[in-house]
Design goal:
single chain, alpha+beta, seven-stranded mixed beta sheet, five-stranded mixed beta sheet, 2 domains, Ubiquitin-like (UB roll), Transposase MuDR plant domain-containing protein, globular
Length: 278
């Protein structure tokens, strides 16, 4: 159509930090001609890659890899990308599968390593990042997996500030006498509410786990922890189906508020409840 532009799609590749420079190595390239608003549908229709579990970034041809921005269908960066295509007719799309093995974690950390070097050691305002509600006490008290520390370096930190705050921008202010007030845009968890939200803050990882348990019990959801440690925790929906449910929540320490904060939250369940709650 008249609004079609060229998307250069890189997939089945992985990010690596080679001698201090961010690189995207291996894999394949596909050229897609479509309207910007139809990007995600166009990729799926082209049937070149399974989009389930893919992390997606974009940049323009004149930018380097450190300019990559995370892309969600309909998100703020998606709208920015669509607006910019009035003037730029080629966009580069980078896909990397959200795997849970060592290789994926290393490639994810390469993004943050290279970005940190480019910013001369500046600290990102948001740190970013799998574990089961049912597990024995010994495992719960065991030493954190060293890999979990590296998870802090993943691409959630790659989201720019506007995208990061988008989900929270409409949060109404609380009155001064509310103990669970919002401080600097971060909302404190309210015990007993059964609610989980993006940018919610907790005194500890233990408190976060209590909140997840409350959520599961109140809503009758079957969830499990997939990552855990002293500084991070992540839970996903545990319902088994042909297509895994997308519900997922990730919490880690946020230095700017000196508390633990929900930094990634896919709040909609795409499954049917299986009758279990654990």
């Amino acid at each position: 159509g008249d609004n079609d532009i060229t998307f250069i799609i890189y997939y089945d590749w992985k990010f690596e930090n080679l001698e201090g420079s961010l690189s995207y190595v291996g894999g394949k390239i596909h050229h897609l001609e479509t309207a910007p608003q139809c990007l995600f549908g166009g990729i799926m229709s082209a049937d070149v890659v399974d989009m389930y579990g893919q992390r997606v970034w974009y940049k323009f041809p004149y930018e380097d890899l450190l300019s990559l921005k995370v892309l969600f269908d309909g998100g703020l960066n998606f709208q920015k990308m669509c607006d910019a295509t009035q003037y730029v007719k080629t966009v580069e799309i980078y896909l990397e599968h959200q795997d849970v093995n060592n290789e994926a974690e290393e490639s994810e950390s390469a993004l943050q390593d290279a970005q940190s070097e480019a910013h001369d050691g500046e600290t990102s305002p948001h740190d970013g990042a799998d574990s089961g509600i049912e597990r024995d006490e010994a495992r719960d008290n065991s030493e954190p997996d060293p890999r979990d520390e590296r998870v802090e370096e993943i691409v959630y930190e790659f989201v720019d500030e506007e995208e990061y705050n988008e989900a929270h921008r409409d949060t109404p202010p609380c009155s001064d006498d509310e103990e669970g007030d919002i401080e600097s845009g971060y909302e404190r968890w309210r015990r007993g509410s059964g609610e989980l939200k993006i940018m919610q803050v907790f005194e500890s990882i233990t408190e976060f786990k209590e909140a997840v348990l409350e959520y599961a019990l109140k809503g009758g959801w079957n969830v499990k922890y997939t990552r855990w440690g002293d500084q991070i925790s992540e839970a996903k929906c545990a319902v088994v189906g042909e297509v895994p449910c997308t519900w997922r929540i990730y919490c880690s320490y946020e230095k700017s508020v000196q508390q633990y904060m929900v930094k990634s939250f896919q709040e909609e369940h795409t499954c049917t409840k299986d009758g279990y709650c654990k």
